[in-house]
Amino acid sequence: MFMKSGKMLVFALLMTVFPTLARENGERWNDTDGNLINAHGGGVMYHDGRYWWYGEHRPDKGGTTQVGVTCYSSDNLQDWKYEGVALPVVEGDPMGVEPGCIVERPKVIYNASTGKYVMWFHHELKGQGYAAARAAVAVADSPAGPFRMISSSRVNPGKSPRNLAITSSTPEYDKDREWWTPEWREDVEAGMFVRRDLEGGQMSRDMTLFVDDDGKAYHIYSSEENLTLHIAELNDDYTDHSGKYIRIFPGGHNEAPAVFKKGGKYWMIASGCTGWEPNEARLMTSDSIMGEWTRLQNPCKGEMAEKTFMGQSTYVLPVEGKDGSFIAIFDRWNPKSLSDSRYLWLPVSFDDDGTPEIHWADSF
Known about the structure:
Elements: H1 2-17, E1 40-47, E2 50-56, E3 68-74, E4 81-88, E5 102-111, E6 116-124, E7 134-140, E8 148-153, H2 182-189, H3 192-196, E9 207-211, E10 217-223, E11 228-234, E12 241-248, E13 254-262, E14 265-272, E15 282-286, E16 294-296, E17 300-301, E18 312-318, E19 326-332, E20 342-350, E21 356-359
Parallel strand pairs: 17-21
Antiparallel strand pairs: 1-2, 2-3, 3-4, 5-6, 6-7, 7-8, 9-10, 10-11, 11-12, 13-14, 14-15, 15-16, 18-19, 19-20, 20-21
């Protein structure tokens, strides 16, 4: 009895000093006010000694956006303070973020030259489902916002990928053509959808941002009807594209990209396209962000690895002050109530060849 009471006393003292000892992966995570953290499909930025977590505020029912992009902050990656709605929906703004549109995969980066915080996200217009396939950008003077939306559009109109010349001989798109035949796949690889969207700009859905060591920033997104990933360079203030972009793994059907860099090599984790259902994660690598990419094996290891531990990639976070340490962030989606989707934060390890691996951990 004494030992039990003693343990309870020690636990109570520890909880006083360390309010959060660990977060259980796949369980409900609350903020410091005791409310459910609602920040899905998001990313984490480290700036001036604090981490900033941005994500989709998801409703209890349905899939459209009613609130906007939420923001939380932490100095220890465990205790998250709610900072409010960084990018709110605005009633009556049909070209902006209005109730009933879809906002997904928000990511924020800081531009040291302008002193601005820049948010990019996948933007679908109200009442159009996933037809618009736009990339939107907003800026703020503070990491908590409010962010002001400055544009929403397709990507790089009139521009061909650097690794594919679009000419009159590029296959044309026929909306009545049968998909998934060998001939159709050949035409996808040859740039059929790029040619279709060349004038108005390329589609952009699931996305992430990456800032390289030289300060150059990149927008990585699913394009061509989610069939092909694009990597597009941003301009110097990060609010537009420079016009330089490549396409990788045409016809590979990849989404949910998450990019990081270690040892001079670039790594990307992504998923297949199976709606809300989990699938096997994919790992890609390159020696150059705009170079040739190679697909490797599933980075997840162990039980349920073939289903990415029932999650989907959204971001890989470098841990500040611990060079070479990364946290892979996943969403475990709950389509019956997206607000109750759960989070998986798992450490990234590296094998003897330096290839990333992700193993399950009960707690973060």
